[in-house]
C-alpha cells in the first residue's frame, strides 16, 4: 500500500469532514503515526469524525476503496494498536469526547469513544 489515497476517496472525506476533520499535512500525519509503543508508521491521512454518522461514512468509503483504517483514542496505548498501517487512514476519536450519561446507581457511564479517563473520573 502506498501513502497516496485514491483522489475520489480523499475528496469525499475532505468534503464530509472539513479542513479540521480531514488532515493530510505531513506534520499532522506524523503526530498520528505512533502511540506509546515503539512502533511507528505514517498514515496517508487522519480523519476526525464528529459523530457516529461520520464514522460510518469513513468506514464505508475506506472499505469501498480498499484503504485500511485504524481507530485511535488518545494514543496512549503501549501495544501499538493505534499505529496505522502505512498508507492507511487513522480514525481519531478525539472530537467524539462527550459524556452522554452517568448512572452511579448502575455504576454505568455512557461515553463517546474519545472521552479521556481523567475527564470521566472528574465527572464522577
From TrEMBL:
Coiled-coil intervals, chain numbering: none
Protein name (database record): Dimethylmenaquinone methyltransferase
PANTHER family the UniProt entry points to: GLYCOLATE OXIDASE SUBUNIT GLCD (PTHR42934)
GO molecular function: FAD binding; methyltransferase activity
The UniProt record lists the keyword Flavoprotein: yes
Any one GO biological process: methylation
Keywords: FAD, Flavoprotein, Methyltransferase, Transferase
Cross-referenced PROSITE patterns: FAD_PCMH (PS51387)
Entry keyword Methyltransferase: yes
Location of the FAD-binding PCMH-type domain: 39-124
InterPro entries assigned to the protein according to its UniProt record, in alphabetical order: FAD-bd_PCMH, FAD-bd_PCMH-like_sf, FAD-bd_PCMH_sub2, FAD-linked_OxidoTrans_Type4, Oxid_FAD_bind_N
